[in-house]
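Re: beginner question about structure tokens

> Can someone show what the tokenized structure looks like for a real chain? I only ever see the sequence side.

Sure, here's an example I had lying around. Input first:
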Amino acid sequence: MINQRRVPSLNRNNPTSDSLINVEQVPTDSNPDESVSRAVIYARTSVKKPDNHYSIDEQVRRCWKQCEKQNWDVVFVFTDEAESGRNTERPAFQEMLERARQDCFDVVVFWKLDRFCRSVVDLVKTEEKLSQCDVALQSVTEYIDTSSPVGRFTFRNLASAAELESDLTSQRVQMGMHAMARKHRWPNASPPLGYELTDEQTLSILEVEAELVRRIYNDYIDKLSMPQVAYDLNGDDITTKGDSEWDRWSVRKVLANELYRGQYQLGDYEEYVDDYRIVSDELFEAVTEIRYRFKHAQESVPEDRKQATVEKILGEFRAAKE
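And the corresponding structure tokens:
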């Protein structure tokens, strides 16, 4: 048997020496008490800095206390920070499932059902996978005992309630987004190149940056190359709005942004806003046609010509840099 002296959190978003459990192993009785379960703790937050009530540390503290009440040995702590519960594609969550398949523990303890999964479909599927590995689930705040038929029934009812609560929250958020969109407000503190935020959280054209936007559009029509446009901008010591060097992707982001033709969109709300227009429809459509024409041409290039095309492009780009 192993006494657990230290159990670091397992968070694969932060791979350090403690990313994998580094438990000090101390030999104990050769005849261990088989009734003692091996528990793992799972904690999740949806944002980087939640309030203390929902923080990773607070969730782990409450789960650990629950394990102590049950006389369970905590062998792993899995944490997913700033990860959505809408699906199970979370690094630590997937690692937990893999450890379950390796028969590393007997029960998963979490603070609240919506910290574990929000989708009832994902929740039931996950419970079935863990059940096949003889792993049970326990919530600190809800009665869950998935080892019995009644417990599984209760578990699925609670899962349905958690999904309903999540859907209602999303609906309220969506309503708030629609209210913001109807006033043509920008949803964050980082407006695109060419704009600044007003006190009302709407956009106002910043003429110096707007001229840069127009230059990018016209340069692309002239050069027919996003890397070349980026190279020229960097050569003129012009940075992106985030003070980074330009590359083909940052140029493409500008060329593909319909906001510059006045087409405002937030979520599924879309409306033309003349005050947001920086380029004409003709200029935007010309750029779009060139972009898609080149994309189609690349898709239609035969395999035996691709390498020659790549070498030619690289040669021209290197020559331009010299």
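Each token stands for a local structural state, so reading them left to right follows the chain. The chain has a mean pLDDT of 78.
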